[in-house]
Amino acid sequence: MVVGDTERFEISQPPELFARVDEEADALIRESVITTTLDNALNWARKNSIWPMSFGLACCAIEMMAMMASRYDISRFGAEVMRGSPRQSDLMIIAGRVSNKMAPVIRRLYRQMPEPKWVISMGACATSTGVFSNYALVPVNQVIPIDVYVPGCPPRPEQLIYSIMLLQQKIQAERGTVRKTLNLA
Ligand code: SF4
């Protein structure tokens, strides 16, 4: 700033530093406005606000709890709101083996979840009854449809996080979201 007869402002830095602000006024608009489809916007909102149901079936649930806690912090992916009721949940994580006795219960809980809903099969037991040949267990895909399988015994929390990232990709790639939401499908 030079103070004299007439006050005037002088740029003290190289002019190109301010070029974007001073000369490219429309740059702000270009960077602030995006165009997309309603399907994409809905999918984006859904994939970043997954509400998992809070229940576990066996030892895999300990790793699931670790994923929720501060060290792994699933809230970075918008999925930290664990719900105690299937009617408020859109993700079921099958964390542990499914026994014959639990299978009908799991199916009932699944049917109580509102659409859209997704299921992750976590660990060898849930997916294939595990390393043990056990007459009391049933693979979970014979009970309800599964979206993502996580291998391991038990899978590490990072693996479960990765499965949620895969699920997010699946949700984002969904087509006809608006039609289904409005019951036009
Ligand atoms: S996969 Fe391993 S950790 Fe998970 S429920 Fe089965 S025995 Fe337990």
Can you walk me through this structure?
With 185 residues, the chain is mostly helical. It has a single domain (46-181), classed as Rossmann fold. It contains 8 helices and 3 strands; from the N terminus they run ααααβαβαβαα. Strands 1-2-3 form a 3-stranded parallel beta sheet. Helix 3 (38-47) packs antiparallel against helix 7 and helix 4 packs across helix 7 (157-172). The longest helix is centred in the last third of the chain and has 16 residues, at 157-172. It is elongated and about 90 Å long. Bound molecules: iron/sulfur cluster.
> Which strand order do you get reading across the main beta sheet?
1-2-3
The CATH topology assignment is Rossmann fold
Do you know the CATH architecture? 3-Layer(aba) Sandwich
Head-to-tail CA distance between termini: 65 Å
Ranges where pLDDT stays below 50 over 5 or more residues in a row are: none
Number of domains as seen in the coordinates = 1
Individual helix count:
8
Rg, Cα atoms, Å: 25 Å
- Structural class, judged by helices and strands? mainly alpha
Principal-axes geometry comes out as elongated
Binned, the helix content reads: 25-40%
Q: Give the class-level CATH name.
A: Alpha Beta
On the 0 to 100 scale, the average pLDDT is 88
Strand content: 5-15%
Helix and strand succession? HHHHEHEHEHH
Summarize the model shown:
The chain is mostly helical and 185 residues long.
Topology:
Layout: H1 16-22, H2 25-32, H3 38-47, H4 60-68, E1 91-95, H5 103-112, E2 118-122, H6 123-128, E3 148-150, H7 157-172, H8 177-181
Parallel strand pairs: 1-2, 2-3
Helix pairs in contact: 3-7, 4-7
